[in-house]
Structure to design on (294 residues):
């Protein structure tokens, strides 16, 4: 026989997400609009219904157990999707498009899609467009947690549970040197000033340099292209940048790889009309560019 489902309430799951997101229970209680005692009672009832201890107790302090991470991941997804549904129904009732929260890596926001965002804002003045510019990993976390409706990020090379991705474009990455020219022998390339280790773009760069047989000695890191350009100008080392971020007088550079930019949205979320409008505009821009290049 199938295991009976625990009778969990969305409110209890919201309490768990709040406790995990705030340093104190008092702040978590304020976030969800209840007293500290009501928060405590709700979480005790959640433990009882799940049937697994979620907290370690030390006096009056309670901390999440490692086993609670599974329940917390479920709670975040349920709370996020339920919030999407509430916002969607509110938009339909009011006829107001409301707030559209989007995230983009800097190359997308400034280099590739600035004109698209400008046109979108002019075409839909009733949509409150809020843009966050950050590295891909941060933006994906915000999409997953429901803090962003849509993001344009670098493909991480693997699927991420709960997130739908659609390819937008392939972006060239090129080597730039202090002298403006690379040594003929790949073995003489470097040292390097690169994007921070662990970033999606750094993974693509490392794979490309290894494939070419180039040394991978890294002497400095930054996720800010202007910082990398400055270090190259100072003669610290060579770098690899998206061509669109190289800047005037900093090239042409040798293209050694391509990174994939994708649209990321929560899979299974309630339809968001304004997010779908923007996604359509971004896709149309890329279709137009591909047609112009033929």
């Amino acid at each position: 026989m199938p295991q009976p489902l625990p009778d969990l309430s969305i409110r209890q799951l919201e309490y768990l997400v709040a406790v995990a997101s705030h340093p104190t229970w008092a702040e978590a209680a304020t976030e969800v609009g209840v007293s500290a005692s009501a928060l405590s009672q709700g979480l005790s009832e959640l433990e009882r219904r799940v049937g697994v201890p979620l907290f370690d107790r030390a006096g009056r302090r309670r901390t999440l157990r490692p086993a609670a991470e599974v329940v917390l991941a479920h709670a975040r997804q349920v709370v996020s999707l339920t919030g999407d549904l509430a916002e969607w129904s509110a938009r339909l009732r009011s006829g107001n498009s409301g707030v559209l929260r989007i995230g983009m890596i800097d190359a997308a926001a400034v280099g590739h899609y600035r004109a698209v965002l400008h046109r979108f804002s002019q075409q839909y003045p009733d949509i409150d467009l809020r843009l966050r510019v950050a590295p891909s990993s941060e933006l994906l976390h915000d999409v997953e947690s429901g803090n962003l409706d849509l993001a344009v990020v670098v493909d991480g090379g693997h699927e991420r549970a709960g997130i739908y991705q659609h390819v937008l474009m392939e972006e060239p990455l090129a080597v730039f040197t202090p002298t403006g020219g690379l040594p003929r022998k790949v073995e003489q390339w470097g040292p390097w000033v690169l994007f921070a280790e662990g970033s999606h773009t750094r993974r693509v760069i490392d794979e490309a340099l290894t494939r070419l047989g180039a040394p991978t000695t890294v002497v400095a890191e930054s996720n800010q292209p202007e910082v990398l350009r400055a270090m190259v100008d100072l003669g610290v080392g060579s770098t690899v940048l998206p061509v669109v971020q190289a800047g005037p007088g900093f090239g042409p550079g040798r293209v050694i790889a391509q990174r994939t930019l994708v649209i990321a949205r929560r899979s299974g979320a309630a339809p968001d009309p304004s997010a779908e409008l923007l996604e359509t505009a971004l896709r149309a821009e890329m279709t137009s560019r591909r047609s112009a290049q033929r």
Observations:
- DSSP finds ten helices and ten strands in the chain.
- The mean pLDDT is 87.
- The CA atoms of residues 56 and 63 lie 5 Å apart.
- The chain has three domains: 10-78, 83-168+261-293, 170-260.
